[in-house]
Description:
The protein is of the alpha+beta class. The chain has one helix and four strands; from the N terminus they run E-E-H-E-E. A hairpin with a 2-residue loop joins strand 1 (7-10) and strand 2. The protein is globular, with a radius of gyration of 13 Å. The termini are far apart.
Amino acid sequence: MPLLRKVTTHGDSRGVTLPASWLEIIERESGTPLKEVSMDVESFITIKPVLENKKEHQP
């Protein structure tokens, strides 16, 4: 079942918020702070964490 999040407007941009607890879980499980996300935009948007120790493996 997909989770629905509202799209908000911030000046000339629009955004989607994520619960802080989701990001904290990723940080706790990876042992590294989450500073960036990778977005793949096709017919849908996929958001993935970019972890510091894995960043050099990103294309």
